[in-house]
Target: Fe-S cluster assembly protein SufD
Amino acid sequence: MAEAQNSPTLDSARAGGPPPVGSTTAGSIAVAAESTVATRMSAPPSFDVADFPVPHGREEEWRFTPLERLRGLHDGTAVVTGDALKVAIEAPEGVTVETVGREDSRLGKAGVPVDRVAAQAYTSFVRASVVTVAKEAVLTEPIRITVHGEGGVAYGHQLIELGAFAEAVVVIDHTGDAVLAANVDYVLGDGAKLTVVSVQDWDENAVHVGQHNALIGRDASFKSIVVTFGGDLVRLHPRISYAGPGGEAELFGLYFTDKGQHQEHRLLVDHNTPHCKSNVAYKGALQGDGAHAVWIGDVLIQARAEGTDTYEMNRNLVLTDGARVDSVPNLEIETGEIVGAGHASATGRFDDEQLFYLQSRGIPAEEARRLVVRGFFAELVQQIGLPDVEARLLDKIETELKASV
Model:
């Protein structure tokens, strides 16, 4: 087991400041894990793509991404090709669904693009989907958004906005084949509660780059579950900021990276407001030659964010030789008046003791292997709270495991 952490105990690592940098390699598992100040972008946030230079791969935010596989999303050569994307929204009573132009003043208020692809998406989309949950509305059925690629290049934008004390669950399902750059904004009013499940179940040749911005109101709660299976390259950038004290954010992630796939999740939790909480937990499994997973977890506690309580964790399970994991937890603390802050990262193979225990009780090796992986992911799958989605994801995990046998 290869680990990088900031205290002797992985699950309880807590700190009042950033620990030292460390890296390690175990067998054929390539691991980069470090703890340093929060990653700085090479250009300040902007809605204008011209404010970002074309990346060359040496920049901090692009150093893990194979730019040649972005199919032109990073340098302006990816041109929209007809109706490459179909978006369908099913919403219960109490929800307003609109299709608006780029001039709508509500767009972009949750966050500003922080890299060239996000800015390209913002300057290139023609129509955006806006989903609004009325003040104090408590939905008993989820909002379901289907994003289906039909080949070609597309740029998109979505806004999900909850009024004060509203409660909703949103499922965003990505399927099909596309080269897509899209931004998603979540705006939560005071006391609102939003759970979002974003599933990336693309065909094998798809490319998906997205920035997810969440602005959390006073005493509001935001839960994000990001699930990534398919695609040739998927690069997602969830970003959290707070509009008032008492806000809470939970960011969960599950990814299964197969042969040749590149799956990258880059997170930033910006504690810019006092007395807010955040909890991050991402888990991944990898198998096959060239499978590459990247997890960057940035947490910034600004000087004015007294009373912050935050923790982030990334774990990776490598199933075969030839897979690579880069796991980089970053923690920057500008005030000592906090409740707690910590992070942990671990990457390794199957636990031989677990497999031996199961096999000694008559469970065949193949079935024991599946049980260990299901148990590894079960905690995160249960966070979804929608039986049909949970069952589908567990079936998908089973399918992935059969492919590695």
The chain has four helices and 19 strands. Residues 174 and 314 are 24 Å apart (CA to CA). Helices lie at 116-124, 352-359, 365-381, 387-404.
